[in-house]
Amino acid sequence: MTPRVRFGAFLAAGLAIVVLIAFLVSPSASSKPDGLERVAQDQGFSDEADDHALASSPTADYGVDGVDDDRMSTGLAGLIGVTVTFVLTGALFLAVRRRSGADGGDADHPARTSSPEGAAS
Amino acid sequence: MVPDRAPGRARSRVTSAIPNIGGANRWQLRTICSTVPTVHVPDGFIDGPTSVALGVVAAGGVGVALRRAGEELDERRVPLAGLTAAFVFAVQMVNFPVISGTSGHLLGGVLAAVLLGPWVGSLCVSVVITVQAVLFADGGLTALGINIVNMALVTALGGYLVFLLAKKVLPHTPGGVALASGIAASLGVVLASLAFSLEYAIGGSGGASATTVTASMVGVHVLIGIGEGVITGLTVSAVLASRPDLVWGARDLPAPVLEPSRTAA
Questions:
Q1: Which of chain A's residues have a Cβ under 8 Å away from the Cβ of B196?
Q2: Alpha carbon separation from B160 to A4, A52, A99, B238 (Å, rounded)
C-alpha cells in the first residue's frame, strides 16, 4: 500500500479541516429543528423534555458565556468541543492500548508501510 | 423555566425574554432560538425505567467495545481515533437542511467504524456524545445511555454490518468501499431512528402513537440518511485517496487496487 502523504501531514491536514469546520462552518449551520425535534413537535411530545441538568454550564447550547458575538460564541464552543474530544479520545485509547498490551514495542517501530493488522500481529 | 444565564448572548436574551408560555420549556425555546440545533434525546422523552435499561445496554456495549478495541489499535490509530472523533464532533455541529423547516446532522458512527473498526469507532462516537451532554448540555444526562445506544452502538456496530454486506456485493475497489460506506451510513441513520422509535414505544412520554412516531422518525431520517451517506462516502473517499492504508474497512482490498498510481506507472 502506498500512502501518498506522510502520517504527520495527514494528521495535521485532518486537524486543520476539523478546526475550520468547528470554528468557521458551524456558526452557519441550519437553525431549523432537527429530525427528532421536528417529530417531537409534530407528534406533540416536545414539551415532555426536561431542562438539562447542566443547562447553566458556561458552554451550554454550543455558546460560550460572555462572548457577545453569536458566530464567535458558537465557533469558540466548536473549538473547545473538538479539542476536548480529541484529547479525551486520545487518552482513552492510549489507556486501552496500554492495558491490552497490544503489539508491545510497536512504538519503537512506526509501521509506515505495514498495514494495521500487520502491525498488530 | 428559562434560566437567564448568559446576558451576552443574543440567543439567551431571546429565550430569557420569553416567559414560560403554556408550559414551553427551555428545550422548545432552544428549538426556536438556537443557532446550533444539534439536538439529541433530552431528559423526559423516555421514562425512567426504560432510560435505566438503555443505560445498562450502553454500559454493556461500551464495556465490550473497550475490551475489543485493543485488537483494532496500533500506535497510529490512537491519534487517528482522536482526529476522527473530533471530526465527528465538528460535523455534528453543522446541521444541514432536509425538508420544509427541518434539519439533520451527521451521526458519524459508520464513518468512524469504516475508518477505525467498529469497536474503536463506536467508542469514538460515545466520547463525542458524552462531551456534548456534559459540556454543551446537548442530550440529557439520564438519556445518555439512550443516545449512546442509538447514535454510537446502533450506527457503528449495526451500520458496520450493513457496510460488510454492501462491500460483498460491490466491486473490491476504493470506489466500492466508499459507496458501501455511504449506503451503510444512510441505513445506519434509519436504524438509529428505529431504535429511538422502539424506545418511545416502550417508555415514551407525551402519549403520541408509537406507530405514528415510528413512521415520522423513519420518514425524516431517510432524508437525513442521504446527507449522512454523502458526507460519509466523500470523507472515506478522501482518506482512501491520500492514506488508503489507514482505512480499516479497506484493509482487505488487494494491494494493487489500493495503488492505482503504481500499477498505472
A1: 36
A2: 26, 32, 26, 19
